[in-house]
Amino acid sequence: MKISERTGVSAELGTALVKQQEKLFELWHRVRDGTLSRGDFGELVQEIRSSINATLLEESRIPDYSTGKNTQAQKQFALVGNYALFESAIWLFVTCEGVEPTNNAAERAIRPAVIWRRTSFGSQTAAGSAFVARMLTVVTTLKSQKRNVLEFMTQAVVAARGCKTAPSLLPEDSTCSDDSELLKAA
Question: Residue 62 has what pLDDT?
Fold first, then answer.
C-alpha cells in the first residue's frame, strides 16, 4: 500500500493498514479452504473494517493533505475520499458469496481480449470495435457462468430473425444475499 511508503505519520498509518489487510486475507483464505464459516468470517471482518475505517479517517486529518502542497498527499487524500464513496461496494465480498476481494478474476477475464487486440491489430472502424467489444463481453460472461457460447449465440440469432426477445446474459439465480447494497454502490 502506497501510504506505508511515505514518511512520518502516513507511514505509520499505512503500516497499520497493511497489517489489517494481512489479517483480512488470512481470514479470507480460511473461508476459501473451508476452515472458517462465512458467518464467522463476517463477524471477524467487522473489527478489521472498523480499524481500516478509523485509520483512513485519521489519515485524512493529517495536515498538508487538504492544502494541496504535495501531489502525493493530494492523491492519498483523494484515495481516502474515494474509499468513503465506495466503501459498501469494497466490502461486498463479505456478504455476497461469489464476489472476490481482489480483481484477479477480472484481470483473467480480460486477458483474451488484450491478447486478441495485440495479435489482430484491433479493428479498423467504430462499428468493428463495438462488435468486438460486445462479442468479447458475451463470450466472457457466458464462460464465467459456465454456459454454452454456441448455444446462446444460436438462440440470439434465431430470436433476432424471428423478431423475438433475445436470450438474457444475466444469470438465472443470484447468489448475492443483498442485491440492494450492490445497486447502491454502483
Answer: 59
Residues 112 and 69 in one domain: no
Per-residue b or e along 16-37, where b marks 16 or more CB atoms closer than 10 Å to that residue's CB: bbeebeebbeebbeebeeeebe
Helix intervals (H) in 6-122: 9-33, 38-60, 71-90, 92-95, 104-120
Select the highest-mean-pLDDT range: 9-13, 75-79, 175-179. 9-13
Q: Cβ distance 82 to 160 under 8 Å?
A: no
Q: For residue 16, what are the domain limits?
A: 2-102
Hey, what amino acid is at 30? R
Regarding pTM above 0.70, the answer is no
Separation CA 134–CA 156 (nearest Å): 13
Between these two residues, 78 and 52, which has the higher pLDDT value?
52
> How far is CA 145 from each of CA 52, 141, 142, 165, rounded to the nearest angstrom?
33, 6, 5, 20
Q: Is residue 170 part of a domain?
A: no
172: in domain: no
**Are 142 and 65 within one domain?**
no
- Residue 96 shares a structural domain with residue 110: no
Residue 184 has pLDDT above 50, yes or no: no
Give the amino acid at 97. E
